[in-house]
Amino acid sequence: MLSPTDLDVDSLLDCIPDWPKGPLDNARSKASFDWKVMKLVLDGDTVVRFKHKVWSTLASDPIFKRTPWEEYDRNEERRLTFARLKKLVDYKLASEEEYLNEPHKIPAFVQAVGQFSWSLIVKRVLSYEYFIVSCKMDNGDRDNSLVNDIMNFNALGAISITELAHGSNTKELQTTATYDPTKQCFVLNTPRLEATKVWSGVLGQSATHVVVFAQLYTPDGSCHGLHSFMVPIRDPKTFQPYPGLIIGDMGGKVGLNGLDNGFMTFKNYCIPKASLMNRNSDVTSDGKYTSKVKDESKRFGITLGVLSSGRIFIILFSISNIQSALSIAVRYSAVRRQFGPTNGEEIPVLEYQSQQWRLIPYIAASYVFHNFFGSLFLDYVDFFVTAFNANGDTQMDMGAEIHSLSSCGKAVATWMARDAIQECRECCGGHGYLKAAGFGELRNDHDANTTYEGDNNVLLQQTSNYLIKFYKEKVEEGKPISSYFGSVNYLDSIETILSTRCPGNLDDIPKVLEAYRFLVCYLLKSSYLKLQEQTVKMGDSFDAKNATQVYYLRSLAIVFFEAEALDRFQRFLTEFSVPDEISIVLKQLGLLYGLWSLEKHLAVLYESGYFTSLPLKPTQSTLSSSKPILTGPSTNIKEMILQLCNQLKDNAVALVDSYAPPDHILNSSLGASDGQIYQNIFAALENNKGAFGKPEWLEQIANSPSTLSGLKSKL
Amino acid sequence: MLSPTDLDVDSLLDCIPDWPKGPLDNARSKASFDWKVMKLVLDGDTVVRFKHKVWSTLASDPIFKRTPWEEYDRNEERRLTFARLKKLVDYKLASEEEYLNEPHKIPAFVQAVGQFSWSLIVKRVLSYEYFIVSCKMDNGDRDNSLVNDIMNFNALGAISITELAHGSNTKELQTTATYDPTKQCFVLNTPRLEATKVWSGVLGQSATHVVVFAQLYTPDGSCHGLHSFMVPIRDPKTFQPYPGLIIGDMGGKVGLNGLDNGFMTFKNYCIPKASLMNRNSDVTSDGKYTSKVKDESKRFGITLGVLSSGRIFIILFSISNIQSALSIAVRYSAVRRQFGPTNGEEIPVLEYQSQQWRLIPYIAASYVFHNFFGSLFLDYVDFFVTAFNANGDTQMDMGAEIHSLSSCGKAVATWMARDAIQECRECCGGHGYLKAAGFGELRNDHDANTTYEGDNNVLLQQTSNYLIKFYKEKVEEGKPISSYFGSVNYLDSIETILSTRCPGNLDDIPKVLEAYRFLVCYLLKSSYLKLQEQTVKMGDSFDAKNATQVYYLRSLAIVFFEAEALDRFQRFLTEFSVPDEISIVLKQLGLLYGLWSLEKHLAVLYESGYFTSLPLKPTQSTLSSSKPILTGPSTNIKEMILQLCNQLKDNAVALVDSYAPPDHILNSSLGASDGQIYQNIFAALENNKGAFGKPEWLEQIANSPSTLSGLKSKL
Ligand SMILES: Cc1cc2nc3c(=O)[nH]c(=O)nc-3n(C[C@H](O)[C@H](O)[C@H](O)COP(=O)(O)OP(=O)(O)OC[C@H]3O[C@@H](n4cnc5c(N)ncnc54)[C@H](O)[C@@H]3O)c2cc1C
Ligand SMILES: Cc1cc2nc3c(=O)[nH]c(=O)nc-3n(C[C@H](O)[C@H](O)[C@H](O)COP(=O)(O)OP(=O)(O)OC[C@H]3O[C@@H](n4cnc5c(N)ncnc54)[C@H](O)[C@@H]3O)c2cc1C
Q1: Closest partner residue to A254 among B172, B440, B498, by Cβ?
Q2: Residue ranges of chain B whose pLDDT lies below 50
Q3: CA distances for A85 relative to A495, A644, B32, B698, B705, angstroms
Q4: A112, B21, B351, B360: which could form a disulfide with B347 (CB 3.0–4.6 Å)?
Q5: ipTM given for this complex
Q6: Where is the signal peptide (chains A, B) (predicted)?
Q7: CATH code matching the domain that covers B459-482+500-615+632-657, chosen among 1.20.140.10, 2.40.160.60, 3.40.50.1820, 3.30.70.330
């Protein structure tokens, strides 16, 4: 991501101004590095400039104006999102060529707009980017006019897979597409209530074309499995749904209320034969199903890879949310004072050990995951570029590996963000509960990320399946373990790794990585053995897998990801040269992330014998005045976590300054860059709708006579 | 709570009807006990009947009608809450005598109304119950007319402590009340922006009288610290604020938007001398401050106890939310099918090990915490009854112990509910993200509970201070450790307990309790020693305490609570006789809760030597085909957790049926008792506002010409 020559701060001064003076000055002055250099290390010159372009475009356009205290009903949120979407398309902030030549501008755009509004970017990505990729992955029979329409806002796309009764298990979807040779068309039907298409984003109000997944039936009555179809559903001028469709908006959601998720039922809805969107299968005009089965499995690997883009972007969504939440909570904590050593003297709550421990590990995670995203995105670009000229098994392998990494990565990153947002909310005390703080919207919008593009728990199984397969092939067929991007390569040394023991203090990243690799190997082998045991016991691999999830396969996928993220961070640290004052801090962050993540698995490290806790005679107490503190390898880890938090606390504000979006994007009364928390909160109080007015209903309700005199006795 | 003769189910049939037949029949038929008997075990006949009365009153009154898909703006939520509050007061569902004679009806009422709407019950409790208690704790100089007004909805109360810059640290509040002998009044002032009163519930729109905390100044300019004052703020007929006050509504919050939190500034606002609300201090008419200092510390203990009621009720709020969330998620999981052993055959997601492990421990916690609440509430009643005729140190001790228990209990219970709600949301997949599922509101409303009535992290310090004090006095002065309700008594045997070691499988509650007590003792002693060490190092007890929070004092308060909750559950099991089929299940729940909670502390059990993990030679792998599974004492714990989840899964639906509120209260399209998830979700889709309409703005925005043609190049 970073070219070291990019670190020329001076040339960037136009787009990253200094912070306004104020209550944060003191905290900022304590930083050991220049946050602008860190910003460049994180994003690189191109991305910093491009985000700046996006953000200043939004800042200068009244339709993108917001205040932290504004409140809209769902209709207004939908309207604003739609109007903003149109504007975004009109702006064409980068050309297609620009995105092709500088692919990092794609996530930069997604993040810059997403941090402004998740409804907006999700609507944009679903109706535009995903849809265009879907069109392009199609067999190419169709002309380009639909893509052009989409690009000019004359059409809007949506993807409709999920049904009322089926989401994760797409195989069992029940919508039917039956080929009718007389009319040369597919007839779509919703056979029962449970088959109603649901959740499709953009479908509720505005999509004109939908990629619909349905079971393909030929006239002979046989079913050929799930296929996708390009289905026009609304008149692009009037937005009137076509006859044969019932389309509705799903209504209120936990969050993302600017996005119009919809539901749809088909009643003998005819679409042209050419609507079938599958490169490898077709139906002859008289109704025979044909398919190029031969490279089916290769294509499957590639499809898996392409479909990973959704999850990869959700990793980015999660990092963006962690960044926003931390920007608010860390700045607030550096200004908010409560209690102190003497009466009258109060200290910033960031000085409390517990506040540091609650926030700073998430800063560490945000840096490590940011790097993970950047690195996985490069892998994805690598894969994507070669995917369409597939001429070997490599692309298939690449696709499967990216699928594995994006599955566990999406699960762990979305959970990390979920917990970070919550911790940040609580770290801001009562004021964190104000709508104007921003956490409510962050949390509610983020919440969907744990579920869509694959439920997290189901996704973890994708990764563990991938890993188990390698190990099985090694043990049962002697195949060496390796993969294109190398994420599994160390597993080939599994027995050597399993013979290692904790080397003492885990005081640098490589040592933590060793512990992590031991953990992964240990969980891989024991999961495999447990699976075997359960298969013998239960006689069924479905049941055996189910009985090996918790503490085995599920943990395996999680530690595999945590190790991989740390490994990629370590590689970044060794491969890129950054100024010393930056690299010192990055190393602290990497180590803190590693130890803090490892902390969740301490018991396994003891169980596995990697850690040792010596048996003590009952009379021999571990507690004596001379040796007061907890002991054992895990104790050292905890002590180091606290030390690192303490070492990093004076850099905490600079670390969030380095990635905080501008104030008008962050849109929080607690997190503004000027640190004027009380003025800003007060502005939110004063300016909210009806702050000082007396509601018209108040007097009337209060003074209405009780109507219950006769009622009470009857209850 | 329970009298065994109460378990006569037949006599209750009128208020607990059977469940409607439907998709849940199968799951229900697998239960090993009668859920109606369990309901009686949980609540007892009186409470079941009383809740039924409350709920049927709400059901029959149109103002309390709701649908899962309704959406209101803040103004409408405020209006509805206010109108419902008035109705609730009018209904007088129980008389004051009834509540006095059967105090369990108080939490029953709070829970029954709270599960309907938290804004409503919080508004009710703040403006009514708390306020009346405040009045009654006053010195009694005032006549009773205000209490009568409140009881007849002719006045509404509020409590105003928090200021913009001070919440947790009340000592430093800055609002001033200066006695003016010429006018014989106190003059209230807000000296600076930061001293603006904020967050006070009911203040925003509707309170007429507020208990205001301010620094009392006498005419000689000296400050006598924080005192409370009864301050009339609005005309009770017109709701017009009086001159000298600026009062506003705080606007949108993360949740609880039916509740009008307010802010207020004073400008030379005069209140009569008699407004001072302190039993023990006064100001003479010429402005001398007088105070009965002698029993100040005793009163402080009592005040602590009385103020615990807020936290005790928040424990109840939390349990209620866990119950609601689990009722939805468990029923949904028993009906929702996804994947299966063979194509076409799908199993309920509750059959997945991971789904069981994600949900069932929370069921266990809900039972254990329910019992904890009931038992602590009894202690509180015991204390409250004697508190006002205080004639010894006993009441002070009782108050301090209740303060300690309610502090850690509130923290752990609110976090437990926070996590349970989130897990339940995720367990319902995409449909869980619908507003109509109910989780959004549950989570957003619940969120405040971790903060108000004391920030959780600050509260944990209250409990650890309490425990450390006992230990210090024991070690330094030889005082035995004991308390009125006995929660700390076992700490007196600390050295004996610390000499114990894990006795093998922790396969019953008493053994888990032993491990827990070891943990508490271990953390108590090491916290004390660490505190000493840090005090020597830092030379300041404030800093030393700060540096001993994480992994020490904070963990101490948490494990102390977890152990106490388990202990009270075990006492319930031994002291009350319930039918065998019930007690078997309760024991499983208790054990599961104990092991699952203990799991978070496994590393400490290794560090402390309670668990042993033998050192292995590097060449000696713990993994061989014959011994595939993780080993060590902690492994057994995990295996037992999974076994217990598996044993309990067929009872899961009956366990939530036993406490689920009626459908019109639960108000969830996923959690209705008929189990018709798809019909109910579809009803929510069809009936939401604007489901099928085309928004008027759509066509207009879509077809508006781009206004950006000339703009792009300028960016
Ligand atoms: C905001 C939002 C936008 C969406 N947009 C779209 C869209 O544009 N197009 C579209 O087609 N869909 C969309 N969806 C639907 C989404 O893709 C699905 O909801 C998601 O894939 C999860 O599937 P599910 O709802 O069936 O969950 P389920 O599979 O029903 O999950 C329910 C529970 O069962 C558990 N579970 C399921 N299977 C297993 C197993 N094998 N082992 C263990 N546990 C299991 C899960 O972990 C979960 O706890 C959207 C959803 C949301 C919330
Ligand atoms: C919905 C709602 C209703 C409310 N109703 C009322 C009401 O009716 N009347 C009223 O007077 N107030 C009310 N409040 C205010 C509420 O009581 C306070 O917000 C609450 O006590 C927390 O205090 P704070 O906001 O000052 O948090 P802070 O103390 O500012 O906490 C901020 C952060 O600092 C940390 N922290 C603070 N001190 C320490 C320490 N010593 N050690 C370690 N960490 C520390 C906290 O853990 C937290 O992470 C309400 C608040 C809400 C959200």
Answers
A1: B440
A2: 1, 4, 616-622, 625-629, 710-715
A3: 54, 43, 55, 12, 14
A4: B351
A5: 0.97
A6: none
A7: 1.20.140.10
- Amino acid type, B356: Q
Q: Does domain B132-292 have CATH number 2.40.110.10?
A: yes
Residues 6+ positions from B503 with CB-CB distance below 8 Å: B511, B514
pLDDT of residue A13: 66
A561: nearest Cα among A488, A615, A651? A488
Helix (H, G, I), strand (E, B) or coil at B185: strand
Ligand-binding site membership of B201 (annotated): yes
Same fold, B132-292 and B459-482+500-615+632-657: no
Rounded (10°) CA dihedral A662, A666, A671, A672? 40
Tell me the whole-structure pTM to 2 decimals: 0.97
In terms of residues, how long is chain B?
Answer: 715
Q: Which residues of A are annotated as a binding site for FAD?
A: 162, 201
| Per-residue pLDDT, A628 | 39
Residue type, A37: V
Calculate how far, in angstroms, residue A558's C-alpha sits from the geometric centre of ligand 1: 20
Task: Let me know: does B241 contact B265? Beta carbons within 8 Å.
Answer: no
For residue A165, which ligand has an atom nearest its CA? 1
Q: Is A92 left (phi over 0), alpha (psi -120 to 50) or beta?
A: left
pLDDT tens, residue by residue, B98-141: 999 999 999 999 999 999 999 999 999 999 988 888 887 775 55
Inter-chain contact B248–A685, Cβ cutoff 8 Å?
Answer: yes
Angle at B434 between CA B432 and CA B440, to 5 degrees: 80
Dihedrals φ, ψ of A652, to 5°?
-60, -45
CA distance B157 to B163: 18
Determine contact: B707 vs chain A, CB below 8 A: yes
User: Which ligand 2 atom is nearest residue B456's CA?
Assistant: 47
- Tens-place pLDDT, residues A407-450: 999 999 999 999 999 999 999 999 999 999 999 999 999 999 99
Identify which of B71, B91, B248 has the shortest CB distance to residue A708: B91
Q: Report domain extents, chain B.
A: 132-292, 459-482+500-615+632-657
Q: Are A108 and A316 in contact (CB under 8 A)?
A: no
Q: Which residue has the tokens 């109360």?
A: B157
For residue B306, the model assigns a pLDDT of 78
What is the Cα–Cα distance from B182 to B639, expressed in whole angstroms?
Answer: 76
How many whole angstroms separate alpha carbon A450 and alpha carbon A422?
14
Phi-psi region of A291 (alpha: psi -120 to 50; beta: other; left: phi over 0): beta
Interface membership of A692 toward B (CB under 8 Å): yes
